[in-house]
Amino acid sequence: MSISTNIAQGRREMTLLLAMYCILLVFNIAGADFMHNSGQVNKWLGAVNTALVVSFFWAFILFGATDLLLGFQLMADGSLKSMLSIILSSAIIFIAMGYIAADTAFGISDGLKPKDDTSLYSPGVFTIYLVFPLVAIAIFAVLQTIIVIRYLSARLPLVWLLSAFICFGFGQALMFAASKKMCLGTSHRIDGAFFATLLDTAAISCVYGFWSAITVDDSGVYEEKKYEF
Length: 229
Prior knowledge:
The chain is mainly α. It has helices at residues 11-30, 40-71, 80-106, 123-151, 157-177, 179-185, 192-214, and strands at 2-4, 226-228.
């Protein structure tokens, strides 16, 4: 038996992912200093920012999975099922994570608020904020590598994927390893968050380039590969 796969289009899904990132970018810029300021507004910005980050990377996982499902023609491109699976589940993640972050910042239930009222740092929230994006990226990388290696004759898309990981990695390194030195060296005008945001945006652009490279268009650039079982 031979199985032929059509590599996913996913245009609506990609548009949704980019729209979510734009929203995240706005709040990321607005709440860049929320961990250094205990003001009420910055607390809310921080809670929303945290919820957006987690829900975005959840959508990122689903986008990668949807690409694979579309490739096997198990889900229609841009279908209501595909879109709702991303939108509704991401909304649930956003609400849940937003509540946890807000509870941590404001002590709504007195169960998650840090003992030190002057600090907004919470090991649990901070771990989710850092670890979940890394897990999401790893899952996305595996899913997309499967698509490229098994079902495409071209390997150039992997360059886009690798570039995205490099940009994200450098951004995180600047954010957590060099931010303090940058802040002090520029008299608190620029810190690692500024460059991390730029590099994260570059990473998303590379993801878009990767998606564009694996997307079948009318010109039929990529040849389908058939596998015998």
